Amino acid sequence: xxxxxxxxxxxxxxxxxxxxxxxxxxxxxxxxxxxxxxxxxxxxxxxxxxxxxxxxxxxxxxxxxxxxxxxxxxxxxxxxxxxxxxxxxxxxxxxxxxxxxxxxxxxxxxxxxxxxxxxxxxxxxxxxxxxxxxxxxxxxxxxxxxxxxxxxxxxxxxxxxxxxxxxxxxxxxxxxxxxxxxxxxxxxxxxxxxxxxxxxxxxxxxxxxxxxxxxxxxxxxxxxxxxxxxxxxxxxxxxxxxxxxxxxxxxxxxxxxxxxxxxxxxxxxxxxxxxxxxxxxxxxxxxxxxxxxxxxxxxxxxxxxxxxxxxxxxxxxxxxxxxxxxxxxxx
Amino acid sequence: xxxxxxxxxxxxxxxxxxxxxxxxxxxxxxxxxxxxxxxxxxxxxxxxxxxxxxxxxxxxxxxxxxxxxxxxxxxxxxxxxxxxxxxxxxxxxxxxxxxxxxxxxxxxxxxxxxxxxxxxxxxxxxxxxxxxxxxxxxxxxxxxxxxxxxxxxxxxxxxxxxxxxxxxxxxxxxxxxxxxxxxxxxxxxxxxxxxxxxxxxxxxxxxxxxxxxxxxxxxxxxxxxxxxxxxxxxxxxxxxxxxxxxxxxxxxxxxxxxxxxxxxxxxxxxxxxxxxxxxxxxxxxxxxxxxxxxxxxxxxxxxxxxxxxxxxxxxxxxxxxxxxxxxxxxxxxxxxxxxxxxxxxxxxxxx
Lengths: 331, 351
What we know:
The complex is a heterodimer. By secondary structure, chain A is α/β, with parallel strands linked by helices. Chain A has twelve helices and twelve strands. Chain B has twelve helices and ten strands.
């Protein structure tokens, strides 16, 4: 299996008035051809910053180091002009809030045409417009030949997100980064967009990085999952293994703390105490130790590295001691 | 609160009958109301003492408007809200103030609902001061409330920005509980919190209900949270109730197509079942509440819709499901989890 995107030892630091903040601290991720990688984490875990760093969208305030390879080609340190060529054609992104990502004073069609013609100047405006209609049809906008002339305010939230997907796939990218693409949407609309991503993956063979805080959203679509906490990947592996046989206490806590429609009992939920640490003052050793139920002396000293444990990879000194999940989280 | 109060009784504490709220949309030079947003249209339900009523629906279904109407924060267009025998909507000054003591609200956004310039102690004490209960034992009461919601009472002099989102929501809950209300209306109290924090707040609310016997109207869009915390559930769509019943009835035998679709659309954190199941994916969007569809409001997205649905509005009655459902073609699904109800044609599941 060839990797379309390989991230190794990615670090991102921001200078703030209170001192430097490490938002991403040595992240390794790998996205294989045509696969879906789910990145799960809470706010501040570094999942969005990681992907923005990959696309070179962080701006001058960020200090990015490490390696990001797209089909073997290093992206970190690449000239902005070269990076712009890749962005939107080879690697495309869908953002959380479709309304703020679309230009309110240009028609939907115009915005799709613009994206096509930037990367393919030889395509005529007329051809590009025709393609825009096809794309809107592909993402399930009714009457695409008429709606292509509409402005974003004439679209509902779900339709705006469909238009964003149309724009993202306009240049047939191999990598689609969907950052909380369904978070702002209602459940029934979320189901529509997830279905759309699923069919686009099948039809176009595009690899997807699916970023979400919602474990359910990732479960149905992802092949592999990475769980992030305080700027690091704390667990990763095939989706079934991570969801059923998690070896990191944080992943287990996260899975146990969501109520499920299939729960038979109505007792208290398992909850993780405390809150996510401030990136300005990260705890020594393992960043999760102040909230960890399994905390041992070692955890306050050494920051555990990600290493293979049974069927997954986990960054915990005592991952073996956690043992296999006796009863699946669904039991 | 006495120990007896912890026993949930079926006596209705809150009785809502035919509640209607239309917002005028003004346009033109004279600012005449040309159109109305039909936000809440004939909503009726009861809340018993010490019980949790879950109110679920998507954005624009009227759940937040309903919450504000319950507390008399908005004037209603029609209908009645009776709380312990008193009409909330017509109560004025003194009577309203007495009602407000017993009826409190917790808001969605703990960042926006706390005054950043007031200490946490002052925020919680505000209600006590207004109701002349602060003098003397006030400070001790505030600290008691803080430990009740699992905050450190020594933090009484701190400001909201010094707390995390989960802690702020606990402050909001402490403030709402200060006057020992009988009913709390919680409008999406956990949806702005991180996943790992949500469970703690849900547990706290369940625990407080057990200890204090306070009833909740719990508004959320997340069905699994509603299922976890509610005794009874009402499902709203475009200003109307489409299905009501006990938690077991609504989740065990969801009978309205919308409830079935909503349940089916909920992603679960289980990769195996997620990949295997056939999901009902509703076509299109929720219609505009400015001009809701005739007859059944759900018919424009419903796979069961027939001619009668456009003509006759289905009443919210029991059609043999054991609980009220507002659908002409209501039927209990074949499987109890509602993921593969009967009559779903494959083309509906597409798109």
